[in-house]
Design a protein that fits this description.
Length: 364
């Protein structure tokens, strides 16, 4: 995708030295575009843990490159396994993280020690390229849903509601839930996006709105609690969200608040679609509500908020009464029964084990 006409990915190897890793510091967006240079595995782990990078596919790719940096420092098996465990422990919910680390280890464990660094960079690059291709395919399959909605209301724009950020900043490129919107927009469809602010970290207001604006997509930021009202009044044609982990039975773990959107969508007969690459599907889990770990993040993310003051300075302020405690579960699980369907790189499918196994027989 592009920023002011210049194409970028969300993670890449530095073109000058050929080994360090570049990322956007997403905690600084939308107020400043800062590109970080990662040279050590510990820096990659910090970037994932602190949400300088976030989004299930992206943190998998960054963790893969983090292991490359670890091997440059020490390519012994003992060090490799230790650094892999450190990276894998940074975020518990997104399955792409564990998937990417396990894939990297499978490749490097079977490689002679003196060739491990080169093999690791090659595998990490392959993970990144596959993610780009998968997300673009998701965009193609998902755009058909927007086209169908447009045919039902000729001459009017299609209203899509999304939650959190599932755009190119959450993947290596294109995004998951936003990929169909970008493809539809680029095809000339009149699409408008309702952007949930997505408290407590405001990924919607800060990141999704920034992405859409830079790409020229019509959008409006709304309070998280406004989605149901808009659905009741016929202002939402389609809900599109991403996911951090999907059980093989179709249960979906995504940013906290997604479950409530699914309930409102069901009550108002609004299609609720989840866009995910196959790397986000956890084929070992049958019951998402019982088995998917939910990350508990710091209470300060709820009790404080950071933004730009009217004088242009950045400020963090407390919004919760002094002495009050705050809880911060980062994700919730939407049962498969509330999901209209999943959009994957191989096409759209119902959210259940039978149809997922049919689409991905190699995991059955």
């Amino acid at each position: 995708m592009k920023i002011d006409g210049t194409p970028y990915r969300s993670v890449w190897v530095d073109e000058q030295d050929g080994w360090s890793v570049r990322i956007f510091d997403q905690t600084k967006l939308p107020w400043a575009i800062e590109i970080l240079r990662l040279t050590r595995a510990e820096q990659a782990a910090h970037a994932i843990r602190s949400m300088q990078v976030r989004g299930a596919p992206l943190i998998g790719a960054v963790a893969a490159y983090g292991l490359c940096l670890a091997l440059r420092a020490n390519n012994s098996s003992v060090s490799m396994e230790r650094d892999a465990a450190m990276l894998a422990a940074t975020r518990p919910t997104a399955v792409n993280l564990r998937w990417a680390i396990e894939r990297m280890l499978t490749r490097v464990r079977n490689t002679p020690r003196d060739a491990r660094v080169q093999a690791a960079y090659a595998e990490a690059a392959l993970i990144a390229e596959e993610d780009v291709a998968q997300c673009h395919a998701i965009g193609q399959h998902g755009a058909e849903l927007i086209e169908i909605a447009a045919q039902r209301k000729p001459g009017q724009h299609v209203n899509v509601l999304t939650h959190c950020n599932a755009g190119w900043l959450a993947t290596v490129d294109w995004g998951t839930a936003l990929a169909p919107i970008y493809v539809a927009h680029d095809r000339g469809l009149d699409v408008h996006v309702w952007v949930d602010e997505t408290r407590p970290r405001n990924q919607g207001a800060a990141l999704t709105a920034w992405e859409l604006g830079r790409h020229g997509v019509s959008h409006t930021v709304i309070a998280d609690n406004a989605g149901g009202h808009l659905m009741q009044h016929g202002e939402v044609d389609l809900v599109l969200v991403g996911a951090d982990r999907v059980a093989r039975t179709g249960d979906v773990a995504n940013k906290i608040g997604t479950y409530l959107k699914a309930l409102a969508a069901r009550d108002n007969e609004v299609p609720f679609w989840v866009a995910v690459p196959s790397s986000t599907i956890d084929w070992s889990i049958d019951d998402g509500l019982a088995a998917i770990p939910i990350e508990q993040r710091p209470a300060t993310e709820v009790s404080t908020i950071t933004g730009r003051a009217l004088d242009g300075s950045m400020a963090t302020i407390r919004v919760v009464a002094t002495g009050s405690q705050a809880a911060n579960p980062a994700f919730d699980v939407t049962p498969a029964r509330l999901v209209t369907g999943l959009i994957t790189e191989r096409g759209r499918t119902a959210a259940n084990a039978e149809n997922l196994a049919r689409l991905f027989p190699e995991y059955g």
